[in-house]
User: Which sequence fits this backbone?
RNA sequence: GCGAGGGUGGUGGAAUGGCAGACACGCCGGAUUUAGGAUCCGGUGCUUCGGCGUGGGGGUUCAACUCCCCCCCCUCGCACCA
């Protein structure tokens, strides 16, 4: 066949050495993909600049931590982003699509300890490797904008903003109980503690430590962060809800309870004559019968001073404070307390209330003091039962027998009518709540209050590999910010990573020792570094002008590109990164750097990639006799773990032999102990679960286009992908089929001049031509609609349908061969154009072979021809009693009467209506007729 | 416990209240090939061939995967928040 050589001739002059498709040529992604990647790089195809004449679109995927190699989750995230980016470019948008590195973090230090490689070196070699991997995927990033957050050119601006925040009181140092992870050797923010465990080490309990630490005053922005969750329609409701819950706003009141005897605060030397509580049920104040303080409450020990309770209170407070979070939040955590020896007065009734310290009261929330109303709060009820304290019901449920203290078996926590509440008896609790709040305010005994669950953001980390906090401590001048001209405070190199004496930076004397910028005297640097979530709170702004050296970014560029129009990333950042970034944006706004309120207009959270795993389940709960001396299972020698479950005492369980690779599994039994393995459990891919599939292997074997296509086809983007190797093969075969179809027909359509495609009246052709023409335009319409809604999987299904139509069409069979060939070419070109965002290498290659000179990257996205979408006939569905009994081809403009007549006279319909009275006929224009008998 | 999101063939998944199962994987049969993780053609929800089928039960409707009520199960988030 001559098509092969013809194609070769057409492109022999092309400088990259395109050889052309041949009939017998196989689809070889390993050859064409690197070729086009080189082409894009040489032609600087993906570089973008500010262009006020063009509509901008900022498309961003969450940048990766350079852990070493790309995993499937990255590839999914970035494939989604790349399809959208390429699609939007084709739609004529000026698309900013950058990539960089979230380069500070613990793994670099851990690697340094294990392999004696400096973190900087480890990180940069990882970046080099992963950058190559990203390029090998064909992603359309403007690589000129790349940076790593560990570059001093980046974090110097972060330090500058820190200094400005410090000046405004938005960054401050305070002593407090903080979360400490022994594995990380550092403190954690509240957001980084999951059910009492470290977010990075799900088996490491977080301990409480009393330390002086740096915080960002995110609570100043709590209300605004909350309000804006109502004004982000482009975000998934789920994420907004998680943020709202995290912020945790509640409305209530402060109430002052006078102490029977005033005490003196040992620190401030001030007289303290009252306990202030926060409550959302101020309507139950008449029912308060005792007072509960947190163990950390400053009054707890002061009140017991000099009483016989003093030693007991001290002992209790010490113990509770040392207990870890998981223990304190377990369901079966015994409600315990100790009497302080002091009393206060119920501010409304004057009753004498004993003051307790209770282990369930949190210093973190409200004022750390709670008025205890056992009749209407279950915790107080339980506590009162244990310590035999009085119960006074004050809210009477409607339509229920009267509450009697002695008969209550649980607290009544709902609304009702006030009783035992002086002149307020008979009021609705809800109305009384407003009334009493007003009165408390007028009488100076409290007043309305709003409380948030969210705490300030703890940003100190006692680690080396992070951005240094730009603070100097001077004996004379105190805590001094590093002046702007001295920034950046550069992280010293060649540091031995060693945590035996706290942060490694502490041990770098030459770096720590410095001069006070104010008085010039001897001073020492802060050795804490910033939480790495600080870097990821503003990197998207830096991408707008990554080399700016006069400020964190150039205002014109940020003004043009920001906010990010579409952000894409994992849902695991719903409250961490996404909340911090929103906060930081508002800070930048208030510092005058930016003019917008929110960084991300639309958010897409993509699902995980999961795969079946094989785990040895272990031997379950063990009795003491079944545990060997070295704390292993006596049956099989596997490690033993402690299990804490709601409402149950602590149990010891055999952990089993962990996970196995599929190829290690024989007959579904554990190789070590013979237990049947837990199979069929689909879990997030991870090394430890031995269920990872390395995208690099797949790219080597099947090509980047196949991997991209499969990840987008396997499921809608927000759902999990259940990995299966056959599915990837299917994607590969589909691309092979397109390739073969193109190469086999190239000779027939190659020489058709481009302009002639639109000149034919394909709708006047043979029926199969009309059908194909319609299919082409239907595909355009469907793929467009679906891409606009991120429904990549069904968009690809529409492309497959187009392919199926095209492959069933013979361009040489009918009479008007030039027209049929032109139509075929139109179909092929449309397919290539529409698939370009998904599989750009394949698209470029075929497009070039079809004789085009330009890259597909800026190809105009096609619009469907309305004439092609119009139909003359449609298939009328004929139902009897709602069941389909027949179909008929009917002109689209047939009147209702005609549709009715067709239905009633239809043979199949009559078979079901024969001898029965037709009760009703429903006619749905252009759809169906339902005959009811 | 509270909140959110889900339950559709052997599998992943499609369906503005209007033909359930698009598209693909897998499987079955056939063709072709020296071979193939290749290609092509046909079939594929179940069925006693009447029908029955979208977790179960009820309801609204001419018509329900879709709307309403009750229940079950799964996933995720939060969880002593006063």
Assistant:
């Amino acid at each position: 066949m001559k098509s092969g050589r013809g194609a070769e001739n057409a492109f022999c002059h092309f400088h990259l050495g395109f050889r052309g498709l041949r009939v017998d040529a196989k689809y070889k992604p390993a050859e064409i993909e690197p070729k086009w990647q080189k082409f894009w790089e040489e032609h600087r195809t993906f570089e973008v600049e500010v262009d006020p004449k063009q509509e901008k679109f900022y498309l961003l995927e969450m940048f990766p931590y350079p852990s070493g190699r790309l995993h499937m989750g990255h590839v999914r995230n970035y494939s989604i982003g790349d399809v959208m980016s390429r699609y939007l470019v084709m739609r004529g948008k000026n698309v900013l699509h950058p990539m960089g590195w979230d380069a500070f973090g613990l793994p670099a230090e851990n690697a340094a300890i294990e392999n004696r490689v400096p973190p900087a070196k480890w990180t940069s070699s990882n970046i080099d490797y992963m950058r190559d991997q990203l390029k090998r995927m064909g992603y359309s990033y403007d690589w000129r904008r790349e940076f790593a957050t560990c570059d001093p050119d980046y974090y110097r601006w972060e330090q500058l903003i820190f200094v400005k925040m410090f000046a405004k009181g938005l960054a401050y140092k305070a002593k407090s109980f903080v979360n400490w992870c022994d594995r990380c050797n550092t403190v954690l923010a509240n957001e980084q503690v999951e059910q009492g465990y470290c977010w990075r080490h799900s088996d490491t309990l977080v301990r409480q430590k009393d330390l002086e630490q740096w915080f960002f005053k995110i609570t100043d922005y709590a209300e605004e962060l909350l309000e804006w969750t109502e004004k982000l329609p482009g975000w998934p409701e789920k994420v907004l809800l998680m943020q709202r819950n995290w912020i945790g706003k509640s409305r209530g009141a402060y109430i002052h309870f006078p102490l029977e005897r005033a005490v003196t605060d040992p620190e401030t030397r001030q007289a303290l004559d009252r306990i202030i509580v926060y409550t959302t049920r101020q309507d139950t104040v008449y029912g308060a019968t005792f007072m509960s303080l947190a163990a950390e409450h400053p009054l707890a020990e002061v009140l017991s001073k000099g009483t016989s309770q003093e030693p007991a209170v001290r002992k209790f407070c010490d113990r509770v404070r040392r207990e870890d979070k998981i223990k304190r939040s377990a369901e079966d955590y015994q409600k315990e307390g100790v009497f302080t020896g002091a009393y206060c007065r119920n501010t409304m009734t004057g009753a004498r209330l004993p003051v307790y310290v209770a282990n369930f009261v949190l210093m973190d929330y409200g004022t750390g003091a709670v008025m205890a109303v056992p009749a209407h709060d279950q915790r107080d009820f339980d506590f009162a039962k244990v310590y035999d304290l009085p119960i006074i019901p004050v809210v009477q449920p409607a339509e229920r027998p009267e509450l009697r203290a002695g008969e209550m078996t649980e607290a009544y926590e709902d609304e009702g009518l006030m009783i035992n509440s002086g002149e307020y008896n008979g009021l609705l609790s809800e109305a009384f709540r407003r009334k009493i709040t007003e009165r408390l305010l007028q009488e100076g005994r409290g007043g309305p209050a709003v409380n948030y669950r969210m705490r300030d953001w703890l940003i100190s980390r006692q680690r080396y590999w992070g951005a240094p906090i730009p603070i100097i401590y001077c004996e004379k001048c105190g805590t001094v910010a590093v002046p702007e001209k001295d920034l950046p405070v550069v992280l010293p190199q060649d540091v031995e990573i060693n945590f035996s004496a706290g942060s490694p930076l502490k041990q770098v004397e030459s770096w720590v020792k410095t001069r006070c910028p104010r008085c010039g005297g001897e001073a020492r640097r802060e050795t804490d570094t910033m939480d790495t979530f600080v870097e990821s709170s503003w990197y998207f702004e830096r991408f707008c002008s990554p080399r700016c050296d006069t400020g964190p970014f150039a205002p014109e560029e940020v003004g043009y590109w920001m906010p990010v129009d579409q952000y894409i990333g994992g849902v695991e950042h719903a409250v961490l990164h996404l909340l911090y970034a929103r906060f930081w944006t508002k800070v930048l706004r208030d510092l005058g750097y930016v003019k917008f309120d929110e960084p991300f207009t639309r958010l897409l959270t993509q699902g995980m990639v999961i795969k079946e795993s094989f785990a040895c389940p272990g031997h379950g709960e063990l009795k003491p006799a079944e545990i060997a001396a070295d704390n292993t299972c006596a049956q099989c020698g596997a490690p033993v773990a402690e299990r804490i479950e709601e409402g149950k005492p602590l149990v010891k369980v055999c952990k089993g032999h962990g996970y196995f690779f599929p190829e290690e599994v024989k007959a579904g039994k554990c190789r070590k102990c013979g237990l049947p393995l837990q199979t069929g459990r689909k879990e997030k891919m991870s090394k430890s679960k031995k269920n990872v599939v390395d995208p690099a292997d797949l790219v080597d074997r099947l090509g980047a286009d196949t991997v991209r296509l499969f990840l987008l086809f396997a499921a809608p983007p927000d759902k999990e992908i259940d990995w299966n190797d056959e599915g990837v093969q299917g994607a590969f075969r589909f691309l092979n089929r397109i390739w073969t179809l193109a190469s086999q027909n190239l000779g027939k359509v190659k020489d058709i001049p481009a302009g002639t495609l639109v000149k034919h009246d394909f709708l006047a052709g043979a029926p199969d031509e009309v059908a194909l023409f319609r299919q082409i335009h239907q595909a355009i319409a469907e793929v467009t609609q679906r891409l606009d809604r991120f429904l990549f999987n069904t968009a690809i299904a529409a492309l497959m349908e187009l392919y199926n139509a095209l492959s069933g069409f013979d361009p040489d069979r009918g009479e008007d061969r030039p027209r049929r060939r032109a139509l075929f070419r139109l179909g092929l070109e449309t397919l290539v154009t529409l698939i370009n965002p998904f599989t750009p290498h394949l698209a470029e290659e075929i497009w070039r072979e079809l004789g085009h000179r330009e890259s597909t990257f800026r190809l105009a996205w096609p619009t469907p021809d309305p004439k092609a979408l119009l139909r003359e006939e449609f298939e009328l569905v004929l139902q009897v009693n709602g069941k389909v009994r027949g179909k008929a081809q009917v002109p689209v403009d047939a009147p209702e009467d005609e549709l009715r007549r067709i239905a009633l006279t239809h043979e199949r319909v009559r078979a079901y209506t024969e001898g029965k009275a037709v009760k009703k006929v429903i006619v749905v224009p252009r759809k169906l007729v339902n005959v009811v008998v």
